[in-house]
Amino acid sequence: MATDSRDLPSRSDELLDDFEAWAGKSQVEMGSFVVEVALEWRTDAAGNLDEWTTQDVRELLLDWFPRNITIPEPEWPAVLLTLHRWVDFLVDLRSHRPGDAAALHAEIDRATDEFHARMSDERNYGLDKFWTARMLEAGVDPEDGEQVEAFMTAVNAGEIEYDQETLDLIMRFDGLDGPFGDFGAEQETPRLPPVVLPSDAELAALAQQSMVVSRLRVLVTWVGLGRTLTQAKKLRIEDARELAELLAVDQPYVEQALSSADLPEVSLVVAWAVAIRVVRVLKGRLVPVKSAAGLPDRPLELWRRAFHAFGELGAAVCPPVSHSDEPPLVGLKLTDVTQALWLALYSAGDTPLPAVLLVDLVRDIVADANPFAGFVAASLSGSTWERDLDRVLAALQVLGALDLTVTDDPAEREKIVELSGKADPELTLVRLTPLGRWGVRELLVEDGVDAPLAEDFAGASVEELSAVLNSGPSLEVGDAVLGAWLGARTPEKAAAELAEFCADATTPGDRLMALAGLSDTGPAGVEQVRRLRTSGGIVGALATEWLVNHDALDANAATEQETTLSLGENLMAMHENNGLVEGLMQFPSSNQIDFVRALATNVHPDSVELLKVIGAESEDESVAEAARAALEGAN
Q1: Do 474 and 349 meet the contact criterion of CB atoms below 8 Å apart?
Q2: H helix or E strand, kind and range, residue 611
Q3: Maximum CA pair distance of the chain?
């Protein structure tokens, strides 16, 4: 009988323990590591762990071991010997007939020469094993994050020799396109939410307020006709200190700095200015670029250039942490990292993302863009990635593209703890500013990505309109989308379309969206809602509630059944958005219990489901108890 895949890890541990006990009792030599590798391979393949075929043996010895497992050559015979012992162990477990065991032993013997040959040929290695071998040759401990980072930096700098032809062959076998994997290949972009962008005048005002624009202006003025640089083409320390004071950077030890490298915010501004060509290095001096003389007076254009040049600032954003000539990997791949951050933050709309969750995004992007893909994430410590992400986010805050806030909301903290799996996570939340959103959208559109504006939904169908409005946009965006849609139709046409959609809709969210839109269609909307009321059922109940709320019907005209149906529908809409319990908590306990008792009448078709959720998840025990009691009564 096949083993349930959910039980494989525990079954693997059990078999390994049994094998070690069997070997001790039988007084035979064996290597637990070999069996551990074999069981891990079988677990990944979701196979039955104690039933093996000759094909399994061949794949393990001639593919898995040569491709993934690094073992010194003198220990290779022990791999074969241990597999023989493993077969004997399985026979004792009565998992195999003697004929099966004989076939497995014969297959191990038959594969011996080819196993040695494949283990010896690096062309059979996987990407991880190839680079692990290079590390061991260089005396690098693959388990030491700092050593691995230094090694990776040296490879990127061309300081480590390796067989490029062998690497190319391995990467073709792995389906990778080049030394940095398949990052940058055409990928499906998620459906992006609509946005509302500031006007041109507002954008210019926002750019004027940006810290990077202010600092670039100060730098250009300070450079004047030119400033002498050191032989390393860096600012002299006295000039760096002077500029730091003018920039009012938050660096309390300016006077103790021994070089401009000790003042990273100063170095960043200088690198930014050079990248956008408002200054340049000429004959050992930092001088202004004459053709850009008027740029500081055009704040939005200056900001736009700084935004587009950000990916070029790797070493300035993430400077070396030691005397290495190369920046950390995040700095080396800053363009890729930034693009990933832009897409994640833009996709989130107005919802801020916890910085602690962006760490994994950065790690994955660097891993995918680097020849060490498989083990980069595991080799470097989490603090390394957090340090470099913090530097990137701080620089983007200086740019004015991001808002960084530290939440003090207990509910938000609890959610971050849950999502991150950390008991004491960083509580910084990250969100694009309006200026940043404008800049990111410009990049997306240039790349041919569909990044809609709210006004683009003027010609949308009601179904598309509902999908957007039910996806959780901010109030500003939702109002703009609905306003654009309504503005493209007469009130009569808009009301007719919304009413027809409401009558045929199958979900609470769609029905409530249609009724919300009808609120902005004036008398035409009232007429259509009166017609909807005559249909009865849930739609009729919602129409009654709408008419009462719009003073188009006396409150006493609503029946108890209509009130209960309308209540159930609104609660079900909350449930659709995973906000039922949170929505209920906005009301006093007594009101919540009244809602529960109303649901207990079973008038609404989803009453039982709602009561189950409230009974299981409500933080108010009196409300939860009332829901559970109502369920018992319903049964």
Answers
A1: yes
A2: helix 607-617
A3: 92
User: CB of 303 within 8 A of CB of 212?
Assistant: yes
d(CA 397, CA 406): 14
Can you tell me the distance from the alpha carbon of 243 to that of 280, in angstroms, rounded to the nearest whole number?
17
Q: Which two tokens stand for residue 461?
A: 């169908």
Q: Which of 316, 364, 371 is nearest to 337 (CA)?
A: 364
> Whole-prediction pTM value?
0.68
Q: Which two tokens stand for residue 14?
A: 């059990």
Residue 2 has pLDDT above 90, yes or no: no
Instruction: Identify the burial level of 195 via C-beta atoms within 10 angstroms of its C-beta, where 0-12 means exposed, 13-18 middle and 19 or more buried.
Output: buried
DSSP summary character for residue 235:
B
- What is the distance between the alpha carbons of residues 94 and 190, in angstroms, rounded to a whole number? 52
Q: Which tokens in the block code for residue 185?
A: 């290949």
As given in the structure block, the two tokens for residue 151 are 């090694």
The rounded percent of the chain whose pLDDT value lies above 70 is 87
Neighbours of 182 (CB within 10 A): 16
Helix (H, G, I), strand (E, B) or coil at 288: strand
H or E element at residue 354: strand 353-354
40: which 2 tokens?
């891990």
Phi, psi (degrees; rounded to nearest 5) at 521: -110, 10
Rg of the chain (C-alpha set): 33
Q: Rounded mean pLDDT of the chain?
A: 83
What is the helix (H) or strand (E) element at residue 432, kind and residue range? Answer: strand 428-432
Quickly tell me which residue has 């404008």 as its tokens: 438
Taking alpha carbons only, the member of 628, 609, 630, 632 closest to residue 620 is 628
Q: pLDDT tens-digit profile of 114-128?
A: 888 888 888 778 777
pLDDT of residue 198: 94
**Which distant-in-sequence residues (6+ apart) come within 8 Å of 506 by Cβ?**
none
Question: What is the side-by-side order of every strand in the sheet holding 428-432?
Answer: 353-354, 428-432, 402-406
Return the SS3 of 93: coil
Residue pointed to by tokens 């009561």: 611
Lowest mean pLDDT among 350-354, 360-364, 376-380, 422-426: 376-380
Q: Are 400 and 165 in contact (CB under 8 A)?
A: no
d(C-alpha 62, C-alpha 227), whole Å: 64
Q: How far is it, in rounded angstroms, from Cα 562 to Cα 543?
A: 9
* Contact predicate 395/310, CB 8 Å: yes
- Sign of torsion, CA 216 217 220 222? negative
**Run of H or E including 200:** helix 200-209
The full DSSP string for 533-569 is: HTT-HHHHHHHHHHHHHTTSS-GGGS-HHHHHHHHHH
Distance in angstroms (rounded) separating the CA atoms of residues 470 and 274: 46
Alpha carbon distances (Å) from 19 to 5, 9, 43: 21, 15, 17
